[in-house]
Amino acid sequence: MDRRSFLKNASIGATAAAATTLAAPAVRAQTTTEMVIVSTWPRDFPGVGTSAQRLAKRISELTEGRIATQYYAAGERVGAFDSFDEVASGNAQAYLGADYYWKGKNPAWAFFTAVPFGLTYTEIDAWMKFGGGQALWDELGDEFGLKCMAAGNTGSQMGGWFNKEVNTADDLKGLKMRMPGLGGDVLAKLGASPVSLPGGQIYENLVSGAIDATEWIGPWNDYYLKLYEAAKYYYYPGFHEPGSQLSLGMNKSWYSKLPDIDKQIIEAACMEENGKQMAETNWNNGIFLDKLTNEHGVKLRKFSDEIYDAFGKASDEVFQEAIETNDITKRTYESFVAARSNVGRWMLLADTGYTEMRNRVLGISV
User: Fold this and answer.
1) CATH 3.40.190.170 for domain 33-153+243-282
2) What is the secondary structure of 252-303 as a DSSP string?
3) 248 by DSSP, 3-state: which?
4) Which of 36, 123, 218, 303 could form a disulfide with 119 if both were Cys (CB 3.0 to 4.6 A apart)?
5) From CA 101, how far away is CA 105, in angstroms rounded?
């Protein structure tokens, strides 16, 4: 073989080898991780339900299918209030819900959703990210084998639906009212009978008279539960849930085995949905408040100062009892109080101060 033929053949061989080397990654198999997500929310329910479904889909999209999510609404795999145990046990990889549902396991869980006279969306977001809230949440989750992330917020909630007017704290005595979390404990202090029900069971219990009153979320979500069919008095402002943070709670053993990139993607997806749900809720609440009052004859009522003062006194008693149960609840409460004072004073000066003056000048009112 002459030199020219050798060089020609060598070049062809090298090109073929290079082509084979470059093509190899294109046929590399992708590992798929299953992520079964159970929820405390009804399927397709506007707001909390659709937000949860959107997040489950988003995680799969952002990981390009490396994490294959399977979403089950409340009752489709386990009951709404069984979601915690389903994930802690490893039978499912994650839940989407409100962590104050688990206060019976430890009162500290309530602080990471909402507590009476608690933090607004802006305030809890600051506490979680920069005030030590996430570290405390992680510590609490470790006790149960969970890793939790903020994954939504319903903002300031209404005080609730009543089938009669309530003008004094005495009017609350004997009232059977759906209210979970520490807010329900406050009602009990005032002589009411708090009932904890998942969203999908509220309407039937209110219509049947099994409960006399209920809170759910706000005008948008309450409209779709048709609570106006059973009660016409709609009270504000809610003392119990000023900025309800929702959670993606993951089995920590499962989560810890994920590649760092997928952990970061899940966190990014949760942060995206946390802001998106709040924006969506704020946009729709004003629209559906008009529908409730103008189309369905709902009567807006503001809690009296006397009732609100009673809520405040009872809340202090509930907190004192809660912090005596264990160390992490006490430390979470102390951190929460510091955040409420720090961020709350700034919000009073900035956001609240501005909106009050703006609304006065423009004539915006309830």
Assistant:
1) yes
2) HHHHHTS-HHHHHHHHHHHHHHHHHHHHHHHHHHHHHHHHHHHHS--EEEEP
3) strand
4) 123
5) 9
Read off the pLDDT of residues 298-332 as tens digits, 9 standing for 90 and up. Answer: 999 999 999 999 999 999 999 999 999 999 999 99
Distance from C-alpha of 153 to C-alpha of 51, rounded to nearest angstrom: 10
CA 271 to chain CA mean position, Å: 12
Identify the burial level of 293 via C-beta atoms within 10 angstroms of its C-beta, where 0-12 means exposed, 13-18 middle and 19 or more buried.
middle
pTM: 0.90
Among all chains, which residue has been given the structure tokens 């005596």? Answer: 324
To the nearest 10 degrees (0 to 180), the angle between helices 121-130 and 327-347 is: 120
φ, ψ (nearest 5 deg) of residue 60: -65, -40
Q: What is the pLDDT of residues 33-83, one digit of tens each?
A: 999 999 999 999 999 999 999 999 999 999 999 999 999 999 999 999 999
Residue 304, sorted as left (phi over 0), alpha (psi -120 to 50) or beta, turns out to be beta
45 neighbors 220 (Cβ within 8 angstroms): no
CA distance between the termini of the chain: 95
Tokens for 226, please give them: 């048709």
Torsion, Cα 284 287 289 291, to 10 degrees, reads: -130
Q: What is the 3-state secondary structure (H, E, C) of 46-86?
A: CCHHHHHHHHHHHHHHHCCCCEEEEEECCCCCCCHHHHHHH
Three-point CA angle 122, 128, 131, nearest 5°? 95
Strand order in the sheet with 33-39: 67-72, 33-39, 94-97, 245-251, 146-153
Q: What is the largest CA-CA distance in the chain?
A: 109
How far apart, in whole angstroms, are the C-alpha atoms of residue 54 and residue 57? 5
Q: What is the residue whose two structure tokens read 């962590």?
A: 99
